[in-house]
Amino acid sequence: MAGTSGIGEMWRHKRVLAASLIGTAVEFYDFYIYATAASLIFPALFFPSSSPSAQLMASYGSLALAFLARPLGAAVFGHYGDRIGRKATLVTSLMLMGGCTLAIGFLPTHQQIGFWAPLILCLLRFGQGLGLGGEWGGAALLAVENAPPGWRARFGMFPQLGAPVGFIAANGLFLVLGTMLSDADFYAWGWRLPFLGSSVLVFLGLWVRLKLTETPEFAAAKAEAPPPAVPLATLLSSHLGAAIAGTFACAACFAIYYIATAFALGYGTTTLGIDRSTFLSLQLGAILFMAVSIVLAGWWADRASPTRVLAWGCGGAVLMGIVFGPLIGAGTLLPIFLALALALFLMGFVYGPLGAYLPALFPIQLRYTGASFAFNLGGILGGALAPIVATWLIATQGVALVGLYMSVAAAISLIGLWWTSRYP
């Protein structure tokens, strides 16, 4: 019987890890195909303007909308995740995100319906942000609240691996389509296929998540005492310091990710004139360094602590930001690849341990709200304006200063980590 119980526990853990990885990969795929299209496609199709730079800035503005929606999604989904449970909330967030992404694939352009096109696009982007606002926190809790003793960081890294997996799927599909289709076909209809294809991935994610049961830690806590009537109010009144510190701690990962991906793609294909397929290939190679460092960070965090690993990663990111701009500005492929690979490798160390770090800041019945709120407010602080500020810096000061945005965000994260150094 003991052997049967052990096998059952092993399969339960595999289902949990698969669900946290696949669901988050789908969410990041949906989120990042928008970021890719915002750099390559949407400026011309949805945001007509007198200059390509103004078009790109407007498109990046729509990209930032989702960051503003994410804290609202964290509040809504966190409320029900802490009161009802993790499973139902994760299923709903995935459906919202996937539905908005699918709708973008059918959206007419500005030439076809005028100003309604960018307006509806922005509304759908806002819906994407709402869904992702509830996704990450629930996926992280699904993993860490099912982890055996001593494995919380390694279980918590599985939702984080969804980011490179989703990125590879998104950019890889854009790369294949760009290679197979002419530019005219790609701009006419080919760009829609990644958005329409999201429906298949969402179905896969739902199929995995509907097979789950509630996490043991949440079920035990709910049986012991009723959850707060309004988790967000309790969080703000009793755990505000932890929420603010957690927000600061998340700033670095968002700044690094969106400058090394969305901004770099737009800058490389417009200002530097590098072929779209070539630059996508560079990013696909660089993102593998992030996947490796997430695994290393999870292993290290279980042997030391998530806070220590995050702090070392942020320290490295401060230095990386100094050399990033000159490497990108060199304009040739090898320095650009080195900049992207270095940035995304360090991204794994400032992102991978967050799945174990943020839930530890809050009691069980406030974890969904607390972790989601801190993570998504950190997205506004570090990521919402990153491509816009980077584009502005280039126009006014030159590319050398772009990396300093990441250095400043990493320094802010170090402040948050110092604030919460009493936590594991």
Automatic annotation (TrEMBL):
Protein location: Cell membrane
InterPro entries named in the record: MFS_dom, MFS_sugar_transport-like, MFS_trans_sf
Source organism, top-level taxon: Bacteria
Membrane protein topology class: Multi-pass membrane protein
Residue ranges occupied by any Major facilitator superfamily (MFS) profile domain in the UniProt entry: 16-424
Pfam families: Sugar_tr (PF00083)
Alphabetic keyword roster: Cell membrane, Membrane, Transmembrane, Transmembrane helix, Transport
Transmembrane parts of this sequence: 21-46, 58-77, 89-107, 155-177, 189-208, 240-260, 280-302, 309-330, 336-361, 373-394, 400-419
The name this protein goes by in its record: MFS transporter
